[in-house]
Amino acid sequence: MDVPEIDLTDPAVLHDPYAAYAQVREQSAVVRLLVPGFDPFWAVTRHEEARAMLADPRMRIEESSFMRPDVPEHCRPYLRTMSETNGAEHARLRRLVAPAFTPRRAAEFAGRVERIVEGLLDELPEREPVDLLDRFAKPLAIDVICELVGIPPADRPRWREYGAAIAAGHGEQFGRAIPAIIDDARSAIAATKAMGDARSANAATEAEPGGGLLADLARVVEEDGDRLSDDELITMVWLLVLAGQTPANLIANAVATLLAHPGQLAALRADPALMPRAVDELARWSPPQPMTVPRFAAEDVEIGGVPIPKGQPVTVSVASANRDPRVFDDPDRLDLTREPGPHLGFGHGPHFCVGASLARVQTGIALGALLRRFPGLALAGEAAYLPDPGTRRLASLPVTLRPAG
């Protein structure tokens, strides 16, 4: 059958992927994506079919789903994170880490996120334009990870450098950052275990909300005695650093979106209780990851009437599925009062983002503090998105702050 095609390097697609997918979504639930230098691959455009694909055990994430950076040999095992596993292996790791990422744990962590947010905002110059992406959103993401992992304050400036290198996604600094992150993660885990050995693991310690993530993960032992190994804990820290770029871009995208929709911004200022809904609507409207990690068909499958041969890569166009009119009323309208719907901004199925609750809390706190402290917040230049079909992220976010008083 004839399937529509989208050239991901087309300037029109890069500028407005939502319009590009809207043109083909009504023709087919699946399209072919073209990228020069690569074989064509498939993308699911409709919401129902996208959810089904992401939950289908026949669609497997493989090593080739990811582009491997060039790192020393001893670092390579740690790059295979939970995100790359399937079936029983994935279920085991998810079962062990999930208790540290529940909505309750995210809510308990909120006070520590608030302190980080306020500290970063205190450092911003109030009388001159500032790049809110580089000076706030990116350092916030890595500072929260440091707080989660238990990195000492004296070491955090170095971790900000790691975060900046990983956010760039390539280059010499990127290559040097990975071994350093792994070495520092190993040291943090050793310090956490030494601290745990020094005090008894009584009930009060177990329930203490101020405990670090590594301490939580190191304490978890299943009834069958299974627990995370030190190598798995190190790999988890690397995954946190990678995943931490998502809330950084979500926060920046959200600020740019709100500033482009003054009516919605005014509504949120007038009713801060809208924030939880607003975060989900902003994640639906401008998701930092407009496409999911490709899955590979373990056998011949059919998606939306389109046959997909065994071994073929398939992604979900989150940008398209999140604006499917079959699921979302008036989907191209930003509406912060919208009832939270089943958007795919955090994925779906076995690989649904395990840190979604924390990302929501972090984003809500960051936006709330910005709007409260800077009622005159305004763009000071163009908020331009990078020409990258794989991520929806800004090159910079220049703003003037204009604090109250």
TrEMBL record:
Record's keyword annotation contains Heme: yes
Iron-sulfur listed as a keyword: no
Gene3D superfamilies, sorted: Cytochrome P450 (1.10.630.10)
InterPro entries, per the entry: Cyt_P450 (IPR001128), Cyt_P450_B (IPR002397), Cyt_P450_CS (IPR017972), Cyt_P450_sf (IPR036396)
Pfam families cross-referenced by the UniProt entry: p450 (PF00067)
Keywords: Heme, Iron, Metal-binding, Monooxygenase, Oxidoreductase
Family: Belongs to the cytochrome P450 family.
Name the UniProt record assigns to this protein: Cytochrome P450
Organism: Nonomuraea monospora
